[in-house]
Amino acid sequence: GQMTGVNLQIVSDTEPEADCEIRIGATSRTGSTVERYEYAVTVTGDSVEILADSLYGYEAAYVYAQNQLLSDLRKAEPDCGELVSVDIRSSLSGGTEHILQKSGDLRIMYHNIWGWNESETNPTDQRNRMLAATYLEYMPDVLCLQECTMMMRNSEKYPIAQTLKEAGYEEVSAAPVTTTATPILYRTNVLKLIASGAHKFEVGGGDDKYATWAVFETKADGQRFAVVSVHLAYQQTAEGNGWRYEQVGTVSEMVAQLQSTYACPVITGGDMNCTTASEPYGRYLENGFADVQT
C-alpha cells in the first residue's frame, strides 16, 4: 500500500481465482516451478507468481519484488513469461551460506526463541513458522532452544515441535523436570540418545531458567558426545551477576559429572545473559571450558 497506494486483499488459494492476482508460494494454481535454492517471478496473463524453494529464496525474492518489480521506477507492462529466475547460492553470506553444506561432522545449533514476547507485533504463530523454516534450512543434528515457554509449546496454530517432529526430530526427556524451557531436540536418523536430564535454576526470572543435558551416540560410527542447553538469570544487576556466577558453577558440576560418567566431550551453550568480560563467563574459563569463538 505504501508503494502503490493500493491495499490488496489477502485470500486463501481455496477461494475462486480472481483477476490480477499476486500468488506467493506454491498455491493450488501456481504454474511456475523452481530448482533448489532458486526463486522465480513469472507473469501469467494478468497475474504474477513469486515462487522459491527455500526460506532465503523467499527473502531474496522479497527484496527483488520491493526494489524492482514493485518499484515506482518500473513503468513497463511485462509480457507473459518468466521475469527473473535467480540461483541465490552465490549471494548467501553472513552465515547463511552454511545451509549449503556442513563444515564438520555434526551440526549443533543454539537459539533463544524469545518466548515471553507474544504481542500483536510479535505473534507467536508467525514467529513459529519462521523459526521452524530456519531450522529446516540448516538441519542441525542437535537443536538446543531457550525460552521455549508453555506459550510457545502450546501454540496450536503452528507449534515448532510438531514441525520438527515431522522432519525426524525428537525432544529428549528432561526428567526429573516435567517440562523444560531449554529443550534439546535431535535427528533420530543420525543420533542415538543415551541419557538426558535437566536442572531448574530457582532464581533468575520467570519459569524458563534451566540447564538441560543429553548424551548422544552417532549411528554412523558410535562416537559419543554430550550437549547442554543453558539459560542463566537475566537481571543485569549485582544480584543477577551473582546468580549467574553460581549457576555457572552448577553447570560446571553437571559437565564434570557427564565427562566422568560417559568419558566424552561436552558442548555447552545457550543464553548466558552476560558478556565475555563478566565474572560468570570468567568462571566458565576457570573451570576448563573453551570458547569456540576464540
Secondary-structure map:
Elements: E1 22-24, E2 38-44, E3 47-52, H1 55-69, E4 81-87, E5 108-112, H2 124-138, E6 142-146, H3 150-153, H4 160-166, E7 169-171, E8 184-187, E9 191-200, E10 210-218, E11 224-231, H5 238-262, E12 266-271, H6 279-286
Parallel strand pairs: 1-3, 5-6, 11-12
Antiparallel strand pairs: 2-3, 2-4, 6-8, 7-8, 9-10, 10-11
Helix pairs in contact: 2-4, 5-6
Can you describe what's shown?
With 294 residues, this protein is an alpha/beta fold. Helix content is 25%, strand content 25%. It has helices at residues 55-69, 124-138, 150-153, 160-166, 238-262, 279-286; strands at residues 22-24, 38-44, 47-52, 81-87, 108-112, 142-146, 169-171, 184-187, 191-200, 210-218, 224-231, 266-271. α5 (238-262) links the parallel β11 (224-231) and β12 (266-271). α2 runs parallel beside α4 and α5 (238-262) packs parallel to α6. The mean pLDDT is 88.
Features of the shown structure:
about 290 residues, alpha/beta, four-stranded mixed beta sheet, 6 helices, about 25% helix
Number of strands: 12
What general outline do the C-alpha atoms trace? Answer: elongated
Helix and strand element order: EEEHEEHEHHEEEEEHEH
Question: In percent terms, what proportion of residues is strand?
Answer: 15-25%
